[in-house]
Protein: YncE family protein
Amino acid sequence: MKKVSKLERGMSYKILLLVGIVVILLIGIGAAYIMMKSPSTTTSTTTTSSPSSSVTVSSSSAPNNNFYLLVFTQKGIVQAINPFTQTSNFLGFQHVVNISTSVPQQVYYWDEVPAGEMFNASYIVIPVNNGSVYIINPSTLKVVETLNVGKSVGFIGVAYSPNQQYVAIADGPSGVVEVINLKNLQVVWKDTFVSPTGKTYYPCDVRWSPNGEYLIVPMRFNNTVDLISASNGSVVKMVVASLGSQPYMVSPNMQGTMVAVEYAGNNSVGFYSLPNLQYMGMVQMPSGVTPQRGVFTPNGQYYLEAPANKNEVVVISTSNFQIAQTISLPSINPQGLASIGITPGESYAYVVIHGSVSSGGMIVLINLQTLSVAYEVPLTTAPAFVLPVSVSTATYLVDNVLLPPITGLHC
Structure:
């Protein structure tokens, strides 16, 4: 028998050791591959198909429900609402301003806080579509001052700055855009946008850029979208749209890189870069759908369009500027949505359905992880706009300011 040298035995041992290491590595790689192919226990994915594209959203975290809603109705009533319970949504109410149901003047248009934030400003600024603006003490819900911006019935709205220390007001009929300091209620600047013949350019809307440097204002009858310095009111840049397109609502994304523009004249939504306002894409609404107000999802992946004449939300992809799906909402008459925003914590979009003064409206929360209806809050009053507030703020108002809820409350 041949003797095996120490050198040969050492080499054999090394070969066996190398083979063992290779086997262990192969087993580990195989196990990792199997785990990668297996469904995750912490993250799920929902895909909704549509003719043009698909919506894929991740649902990896619990939604943030740590807020209540202050609902301002068309006839001057404010209500505190808990949107997450079916038994006691309506917590209390107060008749803030006495607006008769027999006149067209209403709290009707918008009062917008920064997307994803709770209201925490010094005053609640309530626009009435006759050109008046009520300044409300948020601790007492009493009117402390009235501003007269315009004199005619029509689009008027308020937008709070990102730090909620200023508000911008746009009144379409008068052509007035102004910024007010909420610490002292003084006008920082005011300008009137009219043609050389005196016709209003009709600033239908106003939104702050997320960095607070600019206001974005659509001038409906001038067919422009103006980027205006928030500090002094000078026009920095503008988009000149086609004749008759009538830009009348705008919404920037939370990243400050894109703005969507609703066009009343051709039922489309245009997308432009910020701050240079370069054209990015245009989406034509489905037949019979009139775009009015929208909001970007927090990640900027989709734009949620709330039409003026349909109880549905149109989901637009910002990667290809196509309609990805529609989200059907309860069939309340008359059809049409008032506004849409992002809740604190960025888990939901809240949609306001005006309904009617006699039969009431509704608030709908859309889960942004699944892009589906999560909660429906029916109201016996006709809502105008909604301010998300902390639970502690709502509790204070319910305990110290608001009246107990009553059945069948109408405007």
